[in-house]
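RESIDUES AND SHAPES:
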Amino acid sequence: MRRRVTWSAMALAVVLAVTACSDDGGEPSPADGNGIVRIGLVEPQHLIPSNATESAGAQVIAALFTPLVDFDGEKKPFEVAAESIESSDNKLWTVKLKGGYTFHNGEPVTADSYINAWNHAAYGPNGNGGAYFFGQIDGYDDLQSTDPDGDGPQKAPEPKAKKLTGLQKVDELTFTITLSGPFAEFESVLGYHVFSPLPAAAWASDGVLKDGFEEALIGNGPFKMKGTWQHDSRIEVERYDAHPGTKPKIGGVVFQIYQALTADYADLVAGNNDVTKTIPTEHLASAPGDLGDRFKKSPLSSFQFLAFPTFQQEFAKPEVRKAISMAIDRDEIVKTIFKDSQTSARAFVSPAVAGARPDTCGEACVFDPAKAKAAYQAAGGPNRLQISYNGDGGHRDWIDATCNQLTNNLGVECVGTAETRFADLLTKVEEKTPVGMFRLGWSMDYPSMQNYLGPLYSTGGSSNYYGYSNPEFDRLVEEGVAAPNQDEAIKKYQQAEEILAREIPVIPLRFGQNNFGHSTRVGNVELDLFGQVDLLKIEVSG
C-alpha cells in the first residue's frame, strides 16, 4: 500500500521549511488541499478488511474503505455507504446502498461486492481473523470446518457450504441479511470494517482472492493505494477524487511504519512526522514542553489487560490467575509510568459503552499483596512468570514495573519478553507457542458491551487468544444478543461479566485515553474513540 517516497531528503527539508507555520500573530496560512500527511504506525498484521483485527491495519482500512454506517457523538449509528438499513423483527435486515460509489479501479459498488466479500470472510478455511463477526448470519456454521476425531485442523473435512444462506441479493443496490436469531444492535455491528465490500478485481475465482491483492488493495473509500505495501517501511494512499462522500482536505497520507514508538515520537519532535498516535510513556512528562498545545488528549474506548494462556497447566486454575491480579498495584503504575494519563481498570468493559459498571472485577482487582502471596502459594502458582509484549508499542516501562511488583509481592522470578512487532506476538499466540502471560489491548469496533464480551471471551471469539471457554458465559452473551432491546441485552451482558470476575481469564489493568501529538504542518487533528485519526478532518497548512 505504499511505495518509496519520491522526493529527496533535501526537497523534503525545503517543503518542511516552506510549510511550517510561524507564530507571528498574522493570519493563519490557508489549507493546502493537496498536502501530504505523515502518520506513524506499527506494521499491520493484515490489510484485507475481514482479516485485519488490530488497530494499525484498521487505520489504513479507514482510509481505503467507506463503512456502511458510522457513529455520531452519542454513539448511535448513521448511514454512510448505506442509504438505509431496516428491520421489523431484528432478524431480517434489508440494506439499500447509496448509488454513485465506485471502487478505486472504477468498478461500481454493488450488492454483490458485499455478498462476495462476506462469504469469503465467513468461510472457515480462509482463516479470516474477523470471521467471528459473521457468526450471527444464517448458514455460518455450515461454512466452518469440523474436526470430529480431534486430530487437528489438518484432518478437518471441507465445510458443508461455501456461501452464507442468510445473504440474498434483491437488486444491484439492495441485499438482505437473515440472522440466525434477532440481534437488536446489528446495525451498529455493520459499522465494523470487516463488513467492507471487495471489487470483482479482487477474485482469482469464485471465493478465492488473487495473489498479491492485499499488497495493492482496492477499496471504496476516500483514499486509494499509491504503489504497494512496503512492509516495515511505509504505506502510501492518495485522495480518490471520484469518491461521492465527504472529501478529504488533504492530498494523501504516508503511513510511516516504525519498529519502536520512541522513534515515531522522535521524528515528530524533529519535524519528520506529522502525527504520533500514542505518545510513549517515557515521554509523557516531557511532551507538553516538547509540543506545547500540539500535545493532545481525547476519549478512547481502549482496555489494556494481561491475558493468560488458560490452556497451559500453570495458568489453568482461577485461583492462580486471581492471585496474580491481586499482586498488581494498578494505581501506582498509572501514577508513576503513565503520569495519570490513563485510569486503573477494575472491570472488563470500557466505561465508553452503555451498561458498563465500575469495579465489577471485585476482590480480584483489589491490591492486597499479603493475601495474593498466600493464595498464590496455596494454589501452587509457578515459580517463574513471563510477560510477553510487542516491542513496537512502547510497553517496556510498564511491563517491567508490573514484573517488579510480581517479583516483590509473590516471591517469584518475573521477566518481560519483547517480540519485535505486534504481528509477531499475535502469530505466536495463535500458534500456541509458549509466551507466558501476554499483553493485549482492545478498542471497540462498535459501541456495545457485546463487542467486548463476545470477541474477547466467548468460545471461539475472534480475539480470544487465550483459549477461555465457559458455556454459561456463552449462553448469557447469546441471550443478550437475542434480547429485544438494548436495556434487556445489557442485563444479560452484566450477568456474563460477573462470570469473568469469578474466573479471571484476563487481568484488567487500565482504561485509556488518546495521548497524541502533531506537527506544526497540520491542524484539525482528531483521534476518535476507536483510536483512529479522522482523515476527513485533518488539514495541511499552505
About this structure: The CA atoms of residues 188 and 534 lie 19 Å apart. The two ends are 26 Å apart (CA to CA).
